[in-house]
Amino acid sequence: MADVAPFPAPDKGSASRAAANTMSAPPDGAAALPRPRDPRLDFYRGIAMFIILCAHIPGNRWTGWIPARFGFSDATEIFVFCSGMASAIAFGGSFARHGWWLGTARVAYRCWQVFWAHIGLFFFLAMSMAALDLYGGFDKSYIGSLNLHRFFSNTTQQIVGIFTLTYVPNYFDILPMYLVVLALMPAVMGLRKAGLWAVAGFSIALWLLANPYILGLGPNGVSLPAEPWSDREWFFNPFGWQLLFFTGFAFMAGWLPKPPVSRTLAVIAAAFLILSMPFGSWKVFSWLNAAAPDLGEAIRPAWTITDEWREKTDFGLLRYMHFLSLAYLAWLVAGENGQNLVARGTSALSRLWGLVIALITKVGQQSLAIFVFSMALARFIGAALDQTDRGILVTAAANLAGFALIIGCAYGAAWFKSQPWRRKR
């Protein structure tokens, strides 16, 4: 493990390593060697997809046990960080092999795909919630559950806002953030010519614009408007979240050195995660407050003091520190080259572990398709649970059924991407 960076690029022949050293295409006849897929990337991204499904099922009992209830960061950080690493593989090599213009063209194509995934998800769910209200005869408004009344009452204005991203309803805010962050990649790859300090300065400067409290400049930073009738900003400010995305990108591209394998660092990271729980999770704080009211009373003021530092919208500093601590421990657990994520032996337990890893990894490999599918699926599961008593067994069955469906979606997406109709018989 000492020879491996967290989710690192291969040392030689790597497309993204080449991106770190040059922005020009390779000489005629030269070709980048195939880039092996790092099992840790897909495994942890797959875990994030399962957590995201749970987190978006309305009234889901299981959301009380997702990472967001035990610290500052949550599955969103996993998704964004891993997306940055995946982008280093997918796009870093394009910039290295074909130059800045074609690299930018590939990023623009991906932005186009993400944009239409966002549009498709919004209109599918808007139609679905309208159908539930129209034909379901339920005692609640599912249009209202997504706060879409203004869209249906003033469609002329809001449909323009949907397509121009000036109207971004709360449930539909992750993909627009991801799209804007992707659009920053050509600027980052261009700045790479000037050196890594230029890239770091650009990313940190953007983050500081979104988080001016760090410099003592007040709470209101640069953001994007989420709706034309209020001052609400995008729930995920891309100018703040790009710092995490490009951190993942830099690790995979080899721009950042691997952290040392250190027992001391592991203890510090674990201690930070544990000790920050009462300050980052109302769930943990309520437990502590019940067990030791005096200690709870002493901690309570910290919630106000650290409000900006742990804010999710602008990606506060404490969230960044919390996630990096968690990521370091996850890297150690995975082992060198993800060796602990590979099943060994022929025992029934080993085969079962291998199956679990394979399923999670497959979900991680199809993250965009799974994300869009799970965001829609979560609302239907929530609607189904509305017709039950939401008991423990019913909730477990609903979540497990959701897990099975996203696994099926992952295999289906992979099958379509393989274009089997083009294979020669």
What is the count of β-strands? 0
Q: Which sheet architecture does the biggest sheet show?
A: none
Mean pLDDT: 88
Percentage of β-strand residues: under 5%
Distance from first to last alpha carbon: 43 Å
Number of helices: 19
Helix content: 55-70%
Taken from the alpha-carbon principal axes, the silhouette is globular
Describe this structure as you would to a colleague.
There is one protein chain. With 425 residues, the chain is mainly alpha-helical. The chain has one domain. The chain has 19 helices and no strands. Helix 4 packs antiparallel against helix 8 and helix 14 (282-291) packs antiparallel against helix 15 (293-305). The longest helix is centred in the N-terminal third of the chain and has 44 residues, at 92-135. It is globular. The protein starts with 14 loop residues before the first helix and ends in an 8-residue tail after the last helix. Residues 1-34 have low confidence and may be disordered.
